[in-house]
Amino acid sequence: MIIQDIITIVSRVLEIGPNTIDKNTNILEFGDSLSQVEIIIELEKHFKIEIPDSEIEKLTTINKIYKYIKGTIKK
Questions:
Q1: Above 80 in pLDDT, residue 75?
Q2: Does domain 2-74 have CATH number 1.20.200.10?
Q3: Who has the most CB within 10 Å: 13, 29, 66, 75?
Q4: Contact 11/17 with Cβ under 8 angstroms?
């Protein structure tokens, strides 16, 4: 399941429990822009996609990340 994979990756990179994250969690509340880039790199590897740099700053919540990845995978 895409959303669960995202939560697992985000919680691992940010070193927080997956139960503290939901779809509205802003990842920048738990980390900085470097953490955000680390998350994006892990997501790209896991889902075998490429996320352009221009999109990274928009992907601040679990839900935004989910919608982006879901849309990318469907293409």
A1: no
A2: no
A3: 13
A4: yes
